[in-house]
Amino acid sequence: MPDNYQIADMFSLLSKLMDIHGENSFKAKSYAAAAFNIEKLPVQLAEVDHSKIASYKGIGESTAKKVIEILQTGQLKALNDLISTTPPGIIEMLSIKGLGPKKISTIWKEMEIESIGELLYACQENRLMLFKGFGEKTQANVKDSIEFFLQHKDIHLFADIEAYALAVDEKMKQQFPADDLQITGEFRRQMEIIHQLEWVTTADANSIETFFTTNNFSVVEKTDTAITVKGPENILLRFYFANKTNFGSILFTTSASEEFLTAWGNVAEAAEETILFEQKGVSFIPSCLREEFNTSNSAVDLIQPSSIKGIIHSHSNWSDGGETIETMARHAQSKGFEYLVISDHSKSAGYANGLSVERIEQQHKYIDELNKQFKNFRIFKSIEADILGDGSLDYEDDILSTFDLVIASVHSNLKMNEEKAMMRVMNAIENPYTTILGHMTGRLLLSRNGYPLDHKKIIDACVANSVVIELNAHPRRLDIDWRWIPYALDKGALISIDPDAHELSGYDDIRYGVLAAQKGRLTASKNLSSFSLNEFEDYLMDVRREKGI
Fold first, then answer.
1. What is the rounded distance in angstroms from the CA atom of residue 395 to the CA atom of residue 349?
2. Measured distance CA(516)–CA(288) in Å, rounded
3. Residue 336 zone, left/alpha/beta (φ > 0; ψ -120 to 50; rest)
């Protein structure tokens, strides 16, 4: 049964295709609005009496009929009709950042371009600038976006592919119960981006091939040592063949980077990985740390999901979150957390219903009243303040001083050269009211490169100004990149794994932040959100005292 997100995606695509085809703009806008409202609904439409669907905000009688059609058939005829008359390449262009339906319509109908490859070629020949609405800057942006899209096609976020990986793993173990099977590769190394899912197995090669080909998978590659298949989900699955005597060595070599293996040297045959480490005379190195071979890379004290004591960086329905502060607090407490930091968007974030000064005062009074109801739990007053073009924060000091802590983040004008980006971020770090630097580079994995920064100078400045560096745990951010955590720790920086939660389920993203942090050898003692309530309160007081605010 389709869920709200799938239904919303159908209406969103319907709206965009109608615009591309130049159909009724009023209806196109109404379907776009329906998509937005359906995605935000607190209940699943599949669980609602069909007669009541039209009563929800943004869903009229006409749209409700289409919703019911989707729920009953899993299809939407109006959408299917448009898809059937639209070249696949045109639909694919909707994935290109900076290309909206109007521009795509021009590309298709006036430029007579029907694929992303053709469009890239046209950009390289400066042909887009010949058409209205496509200046030099737009053409350059489209070209960059296409190259980024093509570079990352068929690549998946760890979080997006995890459930599928575990489901395949479980299915294979059920299908081949007498054989050894273990997931390996990038997934086992906890990489944030996965190119293919990999396993080591003692199962018979022909049996593996037969199992997948009879389940609608195609064989992409087959050798004496491995087989790669792909199913309807467009995800590559690779199986390395092993036996009882070399299973450990194959598992080891397939779950370490090339750099690690080069430094390691010859890998002997072994039934278990632990034997290899014993032979080498070094402590066992978990797969998440097998990027560079370092004899100190043991699993001692690596941070765990259970190490997180509080939710730092969360958004309520006062800005663009989906829940009340009370609901968020009670949910956090029910999950065993000791505190919640509410950091709604600031006034410059008009797109996110950012807080005016008057609303800040109201929210603070509300939080004070809520805190009276809790025992051994506290809601902290915070804000995710926008870092403006000159690096200042978007409130005066007398307002910033009313918060328990301030998270400073860049949200606008992200296309900057390094000089501009460094100026903005460095100025924000030096603001005495900045407690945490939020999502350092503004990157969105597989969607948007972060703005260019000199990471070492930023980290050094954070240490010098007692500013905590956020590891934003949203699986599309994971920013700061874990590769910079060792340097940060060496310089004495404090990291904070924060979910940037906009709904209750967002708390669960902490786990993805922890998985990334483990690769950077982060320990609980160096993670702010692992501080107990008392330790967190003391830290905030100490920093305020140190900064004289």
1. 12
2. 9
3. left
On whether the CB atoms of residues 414 and 454 are closer than 8 A, the answer is no
Query: What is the rounded CA–CA span in Å between residue 255 and residue 111?
Result: 47
Closest CA to 1 of 52, 97, 70: 70
Task: Determine contact, residues 549/403, Cβ cutoff 8 Å.
Answer: no
User: Is 7 in contact with 38 (CB distance < 8 Å)?
Assistant: yes
Secondary structure element (H or E) that encloses residue 157, with its range = strand 156-157
Render pLDDT for 201-256 as a digit per residue (tens, 0 to 9).
Answer: 999 999 999 999 999 999 999 999 999 999 988 899 999 999 999 999 999 999 99
| CB neighbours of residue 78 within 10 Å | 18
At 137, which helix (H) or strand (E)?
helix 136-151
Q: Does domain 305-547 have CATH number 3.20.20.140?
A: yes
In three-state form (DSSP H/G/I as H, E/B as E, the rest C), the secondary structure along 468-504 is EEEEECCCCCCECCHHHHHHHHHCCCCEEEECCECCH
The domains of the chain are located at 4-151, 156-289, 305-547
The CATH architecture that domain 4-151 belongs to is: Orthogonal Bundle (1.10)
Length of the chain: 549
Beta bridge partners of 407: 384, 436
DSSP output for 361-384: HHHHHHHHHHHTT-SS-EEEEEEE
Same fold, 4-151 and 305-547: no
Report d(CA 6, CA 286) in Å as an integer.
38
What tokens were used for 411?
Answer: 């949200």
| Nearest-angstrom CA–CA distance, 51 and 65 | 10
How do beta strands 405-409 and 436-437 pair?
parallel
Distances (CA, A) of 527 to 284, 469, 487, 523, 532: 24, 9, 15, 7, 11
- CA-CA distance, 282 to 299, in Å (whole number)? 12
Place of tokens 């009879």: 214
What's the sign of the alpha-carbon dihedral 279, 284, 288, 292? Answer: negative
Q: How many CB atoms lie within 10 A of CB 217?
A: 16
Model-level pTM?
Answer: 0.79
481 CB neighbour count, 10 Å cutoff: 19
> For 436-454, how does the pLDDT look when each residue is reduced to its tens digit (9 = 90+)?
999 999 988 876 789 999 9
Superfamily of domain 156-289: Beta Polymerase, domain 2 (3.30.460.10)
Does residue 297 carry a pLDDT above 70? no
Angstrom distance (rounded) from CA 532 to CA 336: 11
Which strands make up the sheet holding 378-386, listed edge to edge? 310-314, 339-345, 378-386, 405-409, 436-437, 468-472, 495-498
